[in-house]
Here is the input.
Amino acid sequence: MPARRKLIAGNWKMNGLHAAGLELATDLARRLASAGTVGFDMLVCPPATLVHPVAGAVAGTPLAVGGQDCHPKESGAHTGDIGAPMLADAGAGFVIVGHSERRQNHGEDDALVAAKAAAAHAAGLVAIVCVGETLEQREAGQALAVVASQVAGSLPAGADAANTVIAYEPVWAIGTGKTATAADVAEVHAHIRATLAGRAGKPDAVRILYGGSVKPSNAAELMAVEDVDGALVGGASLVADDFWAIAETCR
Ligand code: PEP
Here is the structure.
């Protein structure tokens, strides 16, 4: 099985003004640069307004920058949206697509998420494709089927280990302080890995992140789970000490 380098990704959501955002990103970039050789990649996904200044501030360091969403079209009459080429032009290397907050609050379905991931790939970005079941679905015993169907429907043709990362984020664990058990995470990640076969190039090398209330106190246990190749972190990624402590569990 190919070695998969862990990815610790921070999703700032709709948080971050200029000065504080730059301070957070440069603090992390400094820690990463002075840590020397580590066993993880680190990424921050600030709001769209900060992608360019953050990318400029951390240029030349190993800290990567990403967007939180993109439109399936390159450009056009789509007021308020952002095209993947714009993110790439601003200095992003990644973009999150299909986050549950977009699926729920903006009615995004798998076909749209796949189109967004395809747009990301066309712009040279790595797409972080988010999937995850609701509490109702988990309690109904549907978690594995829901997640497999989201993975199958949200991956565009041409998805592979170089241009795609999967993030498993149970909806009920996001921003709630609740985390899935290590056993539940292991079961879902193994199912996602099996689902990737035939749907993505080099499926054994695709990174599968866990997200949902990851914090310093639970990160070591979660990051040690088979088939967990890193974390997508919301709230704790806004505090440099906490985000760094999560990353250090993968050192
Ligand atoms: C997220 O938004 O992707 C997330 C996992 O949030 P939190 O870590 O705050 O639960």
Residues 70 and 123 are 11 Å apart (CA to CA). The pocket of phosphoenolpyruvate is lined by residues 11, 169, 174-175, 211-214, 232-236 (CB under 6 Å). The two ends are 20 Å apart (CA to CA). The chain has one domain: 6-248.
